[in-house]
């Protein structure tokens, strides 16, 4: 129930925005090809629900697969760096440099290496996630104060015990933040990769509709992609409430 209550203000704001968009565009006489009305977008999405539904399924599978792989790799790297500081000294500059470059900049290379199928989209999604999860989790693992660490050592806890009994619980809020950002980045990277080269997916629908000057389909695809992203984000928020219940 608390999750529903927290979502009500967002839904109310979204409803107000859509109403203002609908009536504002009509009153100002804005042409459909510049800014279609929400009702027209929804009608197009319903008319082409089969095409958009299949495309959304492909995109979400690619985004979620890339997210899971990237998140797992980021968590593993953070644990290794925490337990072996020399590894952090070697790999952290590389992670910072790669993270500073937008992941979509690597799309042409990933398409060249993995082809136009799902593998390239999953790879670019994982690349978009791994470093943001790594950096957030590593910062969280370093949060505990020296006094707490020394206290656990006095009770005989080793580095691994301290990691999982002290550092990981303290790092959970930052880990979840990294996962939230990573999920958004994975979805964006996958859609951009689909627009640049794919057999299917929401990004490819947007690309083809743009070439055909079918802007209502473009808007409908964006609308459907937004709903899919919100659904994934809602699942992640629910998981957040279970993992970081003390907030």
UniProtKB/TrEMBL annotation:
Mode of membrane association: Multi-pass membrane protein
Primary location recorded for the protein, binned into one broad class: membrane
CDD domains named in the record: TM_PBP2
Entry-linked InterPro entries: MetI-like, MetI-like_sf
Keywords of the record: Cell membrane, Membrane, Transmembrane, Transmembrane helix, Transport
UniProt key word Transport: yes
Subcellular localization, as worded in the UniProt entry: Cell membrane
Top-level division of the source organism's lineage: Bacteria
Domain ABC transmembrane type-1: 52-236
Pfam family, one: BPD_transp_1
Transmembrane regions: 12-35, 56-84, 90-115, 122-139, 188-207, 219-239
Similarity annotation: Belongs to the binding-protein-dependent transport system permease family.
The protein's name: NitT/TauT family transport system permease protein
């Amino acid at each position: 129930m608390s999750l529903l209550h927290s979502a009500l203000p967002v839904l109310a704001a979204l409803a107000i925005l859509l109403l203002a968009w609908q009536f504002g565009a009509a009153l100002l006489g804005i042409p459909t090809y510049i800014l279609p009305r929400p009702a027209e977008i929804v009608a197009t999405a319903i008319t082409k629900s089969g095409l958009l539904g299949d495309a959304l399924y492909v995109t979400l599978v690619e985004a979620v697969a890339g997210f899971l792989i990237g998140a797992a790799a980021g968590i593993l790297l953070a644990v290794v760096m925490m337990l072996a500081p020399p590894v952090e000294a070697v790999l952290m500059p590389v992670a910072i440099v790669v993270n500073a470059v937008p992941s979509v900049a690597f799309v042409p290379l990933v398409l060249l290496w993995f082809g136009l199928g799902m593998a390239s989209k999953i790879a670019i999604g994982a690349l978009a996630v791994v470093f943001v999860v790594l950096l957030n989790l590593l910062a969280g693992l370093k949060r505990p104060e020296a006094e707490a660490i020394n206290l656990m050592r006095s009770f005989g806890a080793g580095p691994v015990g301290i990691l999982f009994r002290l550092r990981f619980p303290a790092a959970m809020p930052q880990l979840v933040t990294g996962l939230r950002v990573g999920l958004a980045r994975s979805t964006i990277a996958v859609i951009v990769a689909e627009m640049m080269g794919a057999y299917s997916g929401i990004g490819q629908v947007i690309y083809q509709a743009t070439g055909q000057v079918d802007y209502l389909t473009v808007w409908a695809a964006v609308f459907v992609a937004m709903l899919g992203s919100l659904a994934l984000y809602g699942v992640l928020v629910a998981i957040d409430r279970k993992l970081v219940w003390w907030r």
